[in-house]
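Honest question from a wet-lab person: if I give you the sequences of every part of a complex, can you actually get the arrangement of the whole thing, not just the pieces? Trying it with mine:
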Amino acid sequence: MKLELRSRAIEAARGRALPWDDLRDRRAQRSTWERYVRETLTLPAPERDSLRPSVRVIFVAALAVATAVAAVFVLRLRRAPAVPAPASSASALPVAEELRRVAFDAGSQGFLEPGAELETNFIGPARFEVTQRKGKVRYDIRHDPQREFVVHVADVTLAVLGTEFSVELRESMVNVRVERGRVRVFDAERSTDLKSGEALEMRGFFELDPLQNEASDGVPQPELVEPDPAQPSDRELAPKSDEPPRTALSPPPPANPH
Amino acid sequence: MFAEPQRRLLEVSDVELIVAAARGDEGAFGQLYRRHSRFLAGVVFRLLGNEADLDELVQLTFVDALRSLPTLTRGESIRGWLCRLSVRQVNRRLKRRMRWGKFGRALAPLLRRRAPREARRGIDLYGLLQAAAPEDRTAWLLHHVQGESLPECAELCEAPLSTIKRRIARTERLVQGSLR
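Yes, you can. This is the full assembly:
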């Protein structure tokens, strides 16, 4: 019985019709040849095909990462809290974009507003003299006990050691405003000490004409520096301490009232 | 080489055809394919028991033949060589199916239900053979269904004759044990 069943099963398997017609044969022939040509005869093509998706995937992934990083960066910038300005910066002069920066030696510098004119008169080991002829200039003088910085404006002379102040000469009026440190102002009649936050306005009797001034002949002029965004802002230039510097022109400062 | 009319190809030997096809002559390949494709499809169909992978295995057999032309021994029949390559492809496919394990066994009843009517009337031979190892099953089918002699089976299965006998005997026990 078992043998009969087995023989019947084998006969049935032998007698099964082969599902292979001409259409299927031609289709298989074409696909076989295409596969052989693609995989064997033209090797670079499949290599390129195999590389293309990976390159594409890498490019898309890199683009996505770059976009995400940029988005995070922008969001952080937007959410960053504004740095609170120090209280003393309220008196700091705003730095206009069109300010010209003039670099003196020893790290001191001046910021000239449009129309302002500045000239170096004397450069010595104990003294540095400039003449402000026009406009408004803000000075940021690095503290040096051995060297005095002198500004001549009209017939007014300002002597400083290390401070930050601004001087404006307009229509024979000299306006001095001290941001930090101490400045001694000499005019024809008297001398006045100005401390941080103080200002003084006086009449200058004349406005110097650069053509008539022969004192600056032969003195190297300060270097004009293009505006640099990396330079400290007015906030950074704001006074860090109310304690005035010790200058040769001024007596030792009194005890800090604050 | 085969720029002559198509009838000229009929006079070209299988070896010349396959050498030219391996070099990229599509006409030679077409002629070779037409000579042996139907026979190979029949062998694959009898070994597999269904037509699910029939086209792909025939395709793989010819591609493998064109690639492995150096393995063709001198004086060997091209048809026998192609048949051996197709048996190798079938065994690979059956081993891959076996790796599915439980999934394949779970799928077996569904396959049996979808078997042809004549198979359902009698014994589902291929359903019984699913439990056999791929090499055993192939040897048994080649001998009993395909009708090859034992030495031919050994040649096609690329195994010693004794091994083929053991495989066939093992499968025979399985089939006899499954019959009720």
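Two things worth pointing out. The two ends of chain B are 60 Å apart (CA to CA). DSSP finds eleven helices and no strands in chain B.
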